[in-house]
Structure of NADP-dependent oxidoreductase:
Amino acid sequence: MMKNEKILLVNRPKGTPQKSDFRFEEAAVPELQNDQVLVKTIYLSVDPYMRGRMSDRKSYIPPFELNEVISGGVVGQVVESRSGELAEGDFVIGNLGWQRYNAVSDAEVRKLDPSLAPLTANLGVLGMTGLTAYFGLLDIGNPQEGETVVVSGAAGAVGTIVGQIAKIKGARVVGIAGSDEKIAYLKEELGFDEAINYKTEKVYEALKTACPDGVDVYFDNVGGEISDSVLGLINKGARIPVCGQIALYNLEKADVGPRMQSQLLINSALMKGFIVSDYAAYFEEGAIELAKWLKEGKLSYSENIVDGFENTIDAFLGLFTGENTGKQLVKVAEPGNIQG
Amino acid sequence: MMKNEKILLVNRPKGTPQKSDFRFEEAAVPELQNDQVLVKTIYLSVDPYMRGRMSDRKSYIPPFELNEVISGGVVGQVVESRSGELAEGDFVIGNLGWQRYNAVSDAEVRKLDPSLAPLTANLGVLGMTGLTAYFGLLDIGNPQEGETVVVSGAAGAVGTIVGQIAKIKGARVVGIAGSDEKIAYLKEELGFDEAINYKTEKVYEALKTACPDGVDVYFDNVGGEISDSVLGLINKGARIPVCGQIALYNLEKADVGPRMQSQLLINSALMKGFIVSDYAAYFEEGAIELAKWLKEGKLSYSENIVDGFENTIDAFLGLFTGENTGKQLVKVAEPGNIQG
């Protein structure tokens, strides 16, 4: 007998989320309606932006409902089909519930070809993560050959891809991350020109040395004081894609710091927030380019895969301790035989 | 005998500039070199941005030199010519010294046709002031019909033009200014839809009422807490041209406030600093459009003209007390017979 299990949000977190904000609940496997498929979760993605949806305030996407299942990026496999489009054994990706089984219409998921790329890459470098890096860097940041690109949260899922795309475009790339292991990874594995450990170095001073020609593009994944330091070094005409503000997600009080309008003014600099869905009309273009670079070996990615649905919350909470490198995933089940 | 007189910067102001930071000095009228003309100052322009040049720090234009003559927008008349291009009696405009006479090459000034517009309009609505409003609003703000545009420093030289151009483009326009006279002027003379007196009203609350559909474009002339309030009300996809930060020019300590990256992020909003010279390649286009609107009666402007070179410093200091409406000018001399 298959049994379903889901993760509900039961409290809106105050500050850093706690385990007690979530509850695991057993449930029956949902019955299929016409045109629906039953998708067994194979991998699920935990992402920093989800913290925002746990609060009940205006944001770019609506908040999660209390006592409802949390949803996010999921790669799964069809185990039962009442759809003409999808067959048992098909692999699919979608924004689905954090549960072992989701009943969804075929329009809610996209079929994956597992021969093109590893299943997990679809939740990372070829998925929303890669597209976030692609559009934020190229559309807003628009790095030119020889320019200096700084990326914070550089060892994270988005940051690692941003830095590599900037290198592909011929820029000098400087990363900011939080451990010596990460620094070594960025410089030795991903080809960053310089990387700064914000926990052991003075960011402003270290950046000044690492960016002798100033900063032309700052891809901001973190906000807070790290960003203040980078903003002090921007060049005339700098571009600043604001992608995440992980330093702020768990703040309970107002985030106060130097107002940066003067810096933007004296440098004729541009700062723009974005969310990947702003570029939905161009996803296809981005995905093709990312897949090409991946195939050509110009783009590598790292994943941190935690095993077991029961470890989902720990994996999510780990995003805020600065310990993970690359894309954080949870493996929920083994993929079955492709024939289902 | 003609005598020259100049205004020197003798101290870098700490906080708000003081009279003692400047010195009037008599001097000989400069001798002309070949291809030079001697320009008698008729009107000079005092502008908030000049405060920035009085400090010795990185900005978009180099600082004024200590013990040297200050320079800014001047309309003058040629009283002696060794140039083939300009004749005695010609009116010219340029970035010239705060002095009664400037000796300049003909390339440093542009000839004006006094039959096209009042001389003073060339320092305001048809000059750098008008072009600042034009490019900042249209290129960065890009207001669409029916959108809401908020402008701070609304009764100032740039703000009055921004609001009127936004109305020409079909937007709802809300101004923020500092006196009931200014509020009345904006609403009754310039056709602003709403105007808020930041000295007597709670800006955030008043804006919320005045902008029931939120804020699509915020033309920021002032910075500081007023801007914090506006930023709390921006819509998805908002655009924020940062033109001036008059609240900050005289600050001695760091300007600290809520960091606004989160607001930009959750609204996919764009903020961009600029200086009018960023658009130098397009000045002709802007000037033609502004002159057309002026001729059609779609654009009105107000000037505050102080009489007498000796009152230049008072006029400049008055910019920071929030008392002036429209463009602040100093009349230095009567224009002579057009034949010279």
